[in-house]
Amino acid sequence: MKLRDQYTKLYELMQGRQQPGLPALAEAMHCSERNMRHLLAKMQEQGWLQWTAARGRGHHSQLQLLKTPDALALDHLSGLLARGDLEQAFASLGRAQRKQLASRLPAYLGLSDGKQQLLRMPLYRPIASLDPLHAYGRLEAHLIRQIFSRLLTFDHQQRSLRPVLAHHWESEDEARVWHFWLRPGLSFHDGSELGPEDVKATFLRLRDQYSIYQNLYRHIKRIELGPNQRISFYLQHSDYLWPHCLATAMSSIVPRQRARNFAQFPVGCGAFKVIRNNPYQLSLQAFKSYYREGALLDEIDLWVMQPSAEQAGFDLQFGYDPANARKQQSTMIAESGCTHLICNPAHPLFRSTQQRLAWADWLAPETLFPSDDPARKPAAGLLPGWTHRVARAGECPAFRRGSKLRFVTGQSNEILHLGALIQARLQAAGLEVEWRTVNFKEQMSRDWMQECDLYLAREIMHDDQDFGCFEWFSADTLYRRWMPEAVWQQIDQQLRHIQAEPDSASRMPAYARIGQQLVEDGWLIPVSHENHFVSVAPHVAGVRMTPLGFVSFCELWLKDTPEAQHMPAM
Q1: Could you tell me the keywords of this UniProt record (predicted)?
Q2: Which of 7, 126, 418, 496 is most buried, by the most CB atoms less than 10 A from its CB?
Q3: Residue 226, SS3 per DSSP
């Protein structure tokens, strides 16, 4: 039995009782007098009690309990949270206490031992997978970019590709062949060498194993390794977007040999390595052998918690500090992408284009939220700059009395807010709406699609909008599952022509035409373009937001480490 458990038993034993002698204590605690004396001495060393043994005949021993079991548990919890050990902290609590701790986690984020440059941030949901093969969510994609490196990167500020693991690249045969030269002396987090064989294995894996984005790699005919660390990709057709594809999170280079728990504890070669990953937290430590300029922080600790009302609209709240909450500043960026509805044409209300567009008008953004809503703007296309179809609120579409609609959404704050508005609008029309929310893992499994008529989705572009559009339209997305095969085959032909176009400025109008087709046929109903916020404490610097709504962890640093906060009562 742990010492704290023994103290709890002793505390309960002493309630309402006068001072017992050592023999009585030993009998009640089911141990020898010698062991009882040893226990009391250890508890006194911890400062939990004051024990004075009896001296001489007629004198009584004195026992004074200085701590309640609850205070003792809080002290223990304080130490665990100060070390960032959330898994052990939650394991030490009962179900009710776990729920209470989860609701108060923001108050503990300011804790720091001051010995290292440590930043703690909240995550709004658990991590699904850190394997680049399954980098489906924007949260996973962002974290993978910190843990892994790629051959190239897209510089958002310069709007161009930059070398990373590859120091040079060139193409031939009208972009059917691409050569890349790998930097020497690269290594993974475990110290193993990163070489051309790892690059080859990475992309053959992406080509041959299913993922939502497998279409991006299926045209690889073969990969050859040459002298001077050269990797050559031979493609089935022209692809001027191939270097852009190699800069995405999915194209992160992974080791040829991977452990079974690779998705939870990946080994990459990025600026940060994973040192802890459990349902409560993800801890990243700076990789000291990173070949580029290293991170400015020693460690980043991400704690999984449900957003509170005070955090609504904030996915990440950098450097949370309860004492300075009112002094925190908010940074906002308009996301490149769209929150949209997808209709299941198997439902009688959505079988024809005319029906789908009639419901698009009934659910026009102006009927759902005010035009000056700071969190979102009305959408008339899939990108903020596109105007494919402006929904106009009109008469409610006709439908049979008692019609039921199965409505499915995710569970983020933004989606839940819009979902409630859409549900209310549909119910106002007289429909019986069954609203089901699914977490991120459930969304990816897609088992719910057979029992869904209307789905509220959110697509966010990464830094490279050019390739982001190509990725969105070519991936195995939800709307493809509900479209006739002939429609998406036509889209794939259009995408093939886009790949053969060397000029980015000429590719964007082609993407817009695909988007217009999807909107005008009612396969996608644009609802809103979201604004993303990050709240930053005064002591946190180096915050530069990207279109995904996050910041590069490498650029973060602390101007002044906040003093440890007092622990709130449980």
Answers
A1: DNA-binding
A2: 418
A3: strand
Contact 151, 132 (CB under 8 A): no
Distance CA 37, CA 25 (A): 9
Q: Hey, which bits of 391-545 come out as E strands?
A: 404-409, 432-437, 454-460, 524-536, 540-541
CA distance 454 to 294: 46
How far is the CA of 299 from the CAs of 144, 273, 279, 295, in angstroms? Answer: 16, 9, 19, 9
Q: Extract the tokens encoding 291.
A: 């070949």
Quick one: pLDDT band at residue 322, thresholds 50, 70, 90? very low
3-class DSSP state of 286: strand
| Rg of the chain, C-alpha, whole Å | 29
Higher pLDDT, 331 or 152: 152
Question: Could you tell me the two tokens for 362?
Answer: 């009934």
- DSSP symbols for 397-429: PP--TT-EEEEEE--SHHHHHHHHHHHHHHHHT
Name the band, by pLDDT with cuts 50, 70 and 90, for residue 309. very low
3-state secondary structure of 555: helix
- Residue 29 CA to residue 345 CA, distance in Å, equals 70
Q: How far apart, in whole angstroms, are the C-alpha atoms of residue 565 and residue 321?
A: 9
Confidence of residue 93 (pLDDT cuts 50, 70, 90): low
247-299 per-position pLDDT tens digit: 999 999 999 999 999 999 999 999 999 999 988 889 999 999 998 888 888 88
Measured distance CA(476)–CA(489) in Å, rounded: 12
Distance CA 241, CA 119 (A): 37
Confirm whether pTM is higher than 0.70: yes
Q: How much is the pLDDT for 102? A: 62
**Residue 278 · residue 88 · CB < 8 Å:** no
Given this model, what pLDDT does residue 205 score? 98
Q: Which residue has the tokens 């001027």?
A: 240
Distance CA 479, CA 493 (A): 17
> Exposure string (b/e) for 280-293, b if CB count within 10 Å is 16 or more?
bbbbbbbbeebbee
The residue-averaged pLDDT of 537-544 equals: 74
Q: Which amino acid is at 482?
A: W
φ, ψ at 273 (rounded to 5°) = -120, 150
Residues 49 and 11 sit within 8 Å (Cβ to Cβ): no
CA distance 228 to 2: 60
Q: Are strands 152-155 and 160-163 parallel, antiparallel or unpaired?
A: antiparallel
CA dihedral sign of residues 405, 406, 410, 413:
positive
The DSSP symbol for 325 reads G
User: Could you tell me if 557 and 117 are in contact, meaning their C-beta atoms sit under 8 angstroms apart?
Assistant: yes
Residue 434, φ and ψ in degrees, nearest 5: -105, 105
Please give the DSSP secondary-structure letter assigned to residue 219: T
CB-CB contact of 234 with 225 (8 Å): no
Residue type, 286: A
